[in-house]
Amino acid sequence: xxxxxxxxxxxxxxxxxxxxxxxxxxxxxxxxxxxxxxxxxxxxxxxxxxxxxxxxxxxxxxxxxxxxxxxxxxxxxxxxxxxxxxxxxxxxxxxxxxxxxxxxxxxxxxxxxxxxxxxxxxxxxxxxxxxxxxxxxxxxxxxxxxxxxxxxxxxxxxxxxxxxxxxx
Length: 168
What we know:
By secondary structure, the protein is of the alpha+beta class. 21% of the residues lie in helices and 32% in strands. Strands 1-2-3-4 form a four-stranded antiparallel beta sheet, with no helix packed on it. β2 (75-79) and β3 form a beta hairpin. It is globular, with a radius of gyration of 26 Å. The N and C termini lie far apart (78 Å).
């Protein structure tokens, strides 16, 4: 009798586990269904909404040289007049006039690192923005006048800066 009861309990637990796994799979499929079928590849592009932002909507200028999206949902644009943050509605400009620590306003490269700092490659130098403060860095052979044209973060969290003179 003990063996029979033990085997019934094991079969029941196995059935409950199987049903639980099946239910979990169904929930997973429905939870990801929206993402899986978000775009119809056969639909013509004219069927999708296209929104363009220009200087009329607040963009300070239309020449964008760098682009970065942040974990906080902002779109950062690098322009001749500074860094432009776009939240989906408003454009906010950060430049050498209103942001201490930015040596100049021509932005050539942008990168958000894994710590959430925004690295800014400038026409003359490099800056990092964290906690609302900008810090400038000396690039190359002791001069801040090198242009930083590329920024990358490696798997160890080290930021690499490519400059106009080839120095790092």
